[in-house]
Specification:
By secondary structure, this protein is an alpha/beta fold. Helix content is about 35%, strand content about 20%. The termini are far apart.
Length: about 280
């Protein structure tokens, strides 16, 4: 009897552990955008059903979170699918993380810059408008997206500069003096202020929308306020949407009791993109 049940138990365990978003990602169109000594980095592409190479669609590049340490690459699959259905070409790039590549935050930043520049360089291949490409991300991925909009990129210049930022509880203030354990040199690879979006805001940062839980225990809501206020001080277009009582990662699709928050972020993002003339709200 044990021999008969064992295969069934194995199959059942595999079913429970299956990640449908990972399957979607694995089956999606993908390209290697960068080769490193530790990993070849791929970028995954989600296109509208009626996509044509001659299109000039808007695009969004989504960067997953994980503290520059963990690889939660499926985090924005649902968002990418949603915006592909709205006529966007969406991208989910991989990047180096500490847990598997023993990398530092600066490595993740460079990978993010390389991924975004790759998308813009290949705009014709992907059927996108090179002047309507947004960067988006959550937590450390939000930091990467915000870094694209704020940090100087000597390698790619303006190729890695987004036309809009869509940020989910992003790490915008990288301050070793206030948080030495979290933002030490060993983890970052550079001085904190060098990769701190808040400390590098100028008038060139593109229109930005930020979603942040007011009870975020990992990335304090105050840091989002600081970034938003500095954006306004220099005359930039910035919108901060507080989610009252919400903790870190409230926006994730499929998170227990958080589906309404996920749909709210879609609604606000739709309005943000429509205001910029990128798409119409249905």
């Amino acid at each position: 009897m044990k021999c008969l049940y064992l295969p069934l138990l194995v199959l059942f365990a595999c079913f429970l552990n299956a990640n449908p978003n990972q399957q979607v990602l694995d089956n999606s169109e993908n390209y290697t955008f960068k080769e490193t000594s530790s990993i070849d980095l791929k970028i995954y592409v989600f296109k509208p059903d009626d996509w044509k190479a001659s299109d000039k669609n808007p695009a969004i590049v989504f960067y997953f979170g994980g503290g520059w340490n963990a690889r939660h690459i499926t985090q924005f699959v649902a968002y990418a699918q949603y915006y592909a259905s709205k006529g966007y070409v969406c991208f989910i790039p991989n990047y180096r993380v500490r847990s598997t590549e023993n990398s530092q935050a600066i490595d993740s930043v460079r990978d993010a810059q390389d991924a975004f520049a790759y998308v813009r360089k290949n705009a014709n291949q992907f059927g996108i408008d090179r002047n309507r490409i947004a960067a988006s991300g959550g937590s450390a991925g939000g930091h990467l997206a915000a870094s694209l909009g704020t940090l100087k990129d000597e390698k790619h210049k303006k190729l890695s500069k987004p036309n809009a930022l869509i940020l989910f509880n992003p790490v915008c203030v990288v301050d070793p003096l206030k948080n030495p354990k979290r933002f030490n040199f060993a983890r970052l690879g550079v001085k904190g202020h060098e990769i701190s979006p808040y400390h590098n805001v100028d008038e060139s940062v593109p229109p930005t929308i930020i979603y942040h839980g007011t009870e975020d225990r990992l990335v304090p809501y105050k840091t989002a306020e600081m970034f938003h206020e500095k954006m306004l001080e220099v005359g930039n277009d910035s919108t901060l949407i507080p989610f009252e009582g919400r903790d870190h990662g409230f926006f994730n699709h499929g998170k227990h009791l958080a589906e309404s928050d996920y749909h709210k972020t879609l609604k606000y993002t739709d309005a943000f993109l429509s205001r910029m003339g990128w798409s119409e709200i249905e």
